[in-house]
Amino acid sequence: MGHFRPGDTALRREVLHGRPWSVTPTRVVLDEPGLLVVFTAPGTVFGFPEHPWPHHWRTLGRTHWRGTGKLQLHRPGDAYSVDLYWQGEQRRFAGWYLNLQAPFRRTPLGFDTLDHALDYWVPVDGPWEELDRDEFEQQVAEGKYDAAQADAIRAAGKDVEAMLTAGATWWDPAWADWAPDPGWPVPVLPAGWEDYPLP
Question: Where does the DUF402 domain lie (predicted)?
Fold first, then answer.
């Protein structure tokens, strides 16, 4: 499948147990063979297809993205994205959030993945920390992931911990100074988004 151009809309779809689980329209910032960068704009409305495992954001009534937006860096094959967060009207950079997820797979309308709950936070003014271990283990117990998947996610977490401990991060710190094009409208879900097939 082809690559996207800056400014294109790409649908970030989470697929759980072989069925679409959530869909977020994102704005493409950069799409190169070794790096896909997308932005989730403030106010972006999420799509939640019907699913036997209801999405927790849908259960909580979280219908759209709040805050200043987030930038996500993806390398092919990585079992995590590197997400950047800013705070306040001045967009003060807050830090890097390593979101464990299935390696992204391209689709005609964007890319597929699945959030794996376990995360790592690297603030600009302090040491890194692990997040949501209890939530992840609870999801394992409830059957969201099978034993092999759970082991692979734990191993990916160990790899991330080793990288952070060694200070061997690969991403360019200059991304912290990035800002969205003010002319970009908030991307929306296209007609028929519920029905586009799995790759």
Answer: 55-167
